[in-house]
Write a structure and sequence with these properties.
With about 130 residues, this protein is mainly beta. About 10% of the residues lie in helices and about 45% in strands.
Amino acid sequence: LTRRLDPAGPEGRRIAAEMKQLLEQGEVANRGELPVRWGRVSKATDETLDLSIDVVLMTGAGPKHRHPNGEVSFAIALDGDPRFDGKPEGWVVLPTDSVHVPTVEGGTMLIAYFLPQGAMEFLEAV
């Protein structure tokens, strides 16, 4: 993924800047309260290559869940030195049937996540 879209490259920085602007305008991650604010951008459709697209703003832990078909996330640091599940800003890929409690530590991140067929199973009450 990084070869195709380097988060530190010009296109990655442009996308990050646009996502920050959408956050400031209240267009993404506009539901819920911190430590996790979220919002759906698109359901899985032919136009999105059968990926649902959601954007979250995180400063802590979210609900435990399972990814039947995996998850690909594009994480953007907003302040501090944040880590998403221990990883710095950039691409984070979780395999099929992965389970985690998504957590941002050390700052704030804006994360776009892509789910094949929109598949996610919450394992805790949301």
